[in-house]
Amino acid sequence: MSGPECCSNPPTLNPNAGTGHVDKLGALNAYITGSPNSNSAVLLVSDIFGYEAPNLRKLADKVAAAGYYVAVPDFFNGDPYNPENPDRPLPIWLKDHGTDKGFEDAKLVLEAIKSKGVSSIGAAGFCWGAKVVTELAKSVLIQAVVLLHPSFVSVDDIKGVDIPISILGAEIDKLSPPELVKQFEEILSTKPVANFVKIFPKVSHGWTVRYDLEVAEAVKAADEAHQDLLDWFAKHLK
């Protein structure tokens, strides 16, 4: 479940990345960007590298520019996965940072967002975060969801989703191979729920947030996924 792809192309974390600011939301620190007066909010749930990843914050700012209040919480409490630390390989790190705990923390974050007076909330999750937002979707705590190169999401999870759902998968992905994403699509096609499923050719797991800014093709593929995410929320939140 947590092979090398989960950890490839780690970002250089930067606590000052982005045009927003860090504030408390629920019990967690969160990167906040966009208008606090917006009627619609978007929760972005990171991969294992956490909320200081510059590309993730850049995407948060892009979503905010479309008119949303955006929150990117620190679900790992200052302890994102560090591939340089041989004492805490991923399976050990995941014991401290399970998606079940992420789900419980996310519920409190959603309450804090709702208290600001927003009328609709969407959530997008990347890798690890996709499992967390899937649980939020199954509990109908949000109005729309986007999964980007999901990790740990099962066929049964998708069967339990009854809100508008978009799944963006990679052609090269051992964690959610195209065969599995196609299974997700088949399940959704039998349900009376709005859905959008797309497999991006020639890209790998993590491509939407762990891309190299110097590689034009990588930026283009990430931008296309970001636009799909924005289009989904525009359709189902506003």
Q: What does the model show?
A:
The chain is α/β, with parallel strands linked by helices. The chain has helices at 54-65, 90-96, 99-114, 128-138, 155-159, 178-189, 216-236; strands spanning 21-25, 28-33, 40-45, 69-73, 120-126, 144-148, 165-172, 195-204. An 8-stranded mixed β-sheet has the order 1-2-4-3-5-6-7-8, with helices on both faces. Strand 7 (165-172), helix 6 (178-189) and strand 8 form a beta-alpha-beta unit. The mean pLDDT is 96.
Keywords, separated by commas or semicolons:
alpha/beta, 22% strand, single chain, globular, 238 residues
Give a brief description.
By secondary structure, the protein is an alpha/beta fold. Helix content is 35%, strand content 22%. Strands 1-2-4-3-5-6-7-8 form an 8-stranded mixed beta sheet, sandwiched between helices.
Strand content: 15-25%
Radius of gyration: 16 Å
Mean pLDDT: 96
**How many helical elements?**
7
The class by helix and strand makeup works out as alpha/beta
Overall helicity: 25-40%
Order of helices and strands: EEEHEHHEHEHEHEH
Distance between the termini: 35 Å
User: What is the β-strand count?
Assistant: 8
Shape, principal axes of CA atoms = globular
What are the segments in which pLDDT stays under 50 over at least 5 consecutive residues?
A: none
Order of adjacent strands in the largest pleated sheet: 1-2-4-3-5-6-7-8
Q: Could you describe the largest sheet, including whether it forms a barrel?
A: 8 strands, mixed
